[in-house]
Amino acid sequence: MISGEQLGLLLAIVDEGSFSAAARRLRRTPAAISMMVAGLEADLGFALFDRSGREALPSERLQAVLADARMVVADIAAINKRLGAMAGGLESELTLGISSDLPMENILSPLRRLSDTYPLLRVNLITAPQSDILRALARDEIDGCLSYADRTISMDEAVTGLWVETIVAVVAPDHPLARQQGLTLEALQGHRQIISASPYGPPETRSTLIAAQLWKVGTLYQMSAMAEQGLGWANIPASAIRKQLKTRSLVALKFTNVRNGLEVPVLFRRKRGKKMGLGLQAFLDWIPKTGNAPGPGS
Question: I need a surface site. Which of 128, 196, 218, 297 has the fewest CB within 10 A?
Fold first, then answer.
């Protein structure tokens, strides 16, 4: 049967057009190339090249498998590249947790670079309410997580600051809070708040939770969609609802006693002492860490 090295040899002859040109490319002698092809043809029982002209043209049978051969050679090269990267510290698999009410905008480009740089690295992105993500971190089920700063950071966690999100309280334009005169922050306690949170386990501990009545959902989209329908008010990152604020399907509340716009750091959290692989380190380095996400008036 044919090997990956032999496939590479055949492709070199096809691409270069002759045995001698392929020999130069592969840094071998033409005689060695001819001997290898002749041995392979003898094993297979049919000719691989038409040698009647000046160029070595692939036979009909070789032509039929060239596309597959290129794919196999490319896969072998990629595997060798990955093995080399793993020898240099690349993890075999990367599992990241992401708080479900965290905008993806700042991490999409780093994820693309990660894919381009390490195309065979297996990446698992687990998006869930923050309390669920932090429990997965505590159980060592993930390599690390992106989350908002809260009061649950423990001594056995290593924490890296990434960027800051501006969280704004928003409602539908026809919600009673949008029409209330002299609105104070304390008035929100009497109106339903829509939050991204787990229905299981202990309650969330973040300072953005205010109301006595909470409706829990799983994603940013659900939060904003339900707020747009007037089902309650929500604290949402301004960077995630620029379009809704511009079209006024959501409006930022105006308080008389505080500014509407709580700046909350976004952190990368991992178990202290856990080795960080090459892929994870590169991903974190590529995340932009300059400035805050724009507020409601930006």
Answer: 297
Output the average pLDDT for the chain: 89
Supply the pTM of this predicted model: 0.70
| Boundaries of every domain in the chain | 4-87, 92-298
Distance CA 147, CA 100 (A): 9
- Using alpha carbons, list the distances in angstroms from residue 84 to 63, 75, 270: 32, 14, 26
Q: What are 213-258's pLDDT values in tens digits?
A: 889 998 999 999 999 999 999 999 999 999 999 999 999 999 999 9
Domain 4-87: give its CATH code.
1.10.10.10
At the topology level, CATH places domain 92-298 in D-Maltodextrin-Binding Protein; domain 2 (3.40.190)
d(CA 112, CA 144): 19
The model's pLDDT over 268-296, given as tens digits with 9 standing for 90+, comes to 999 998 888 999 999 999 998 755 443 34
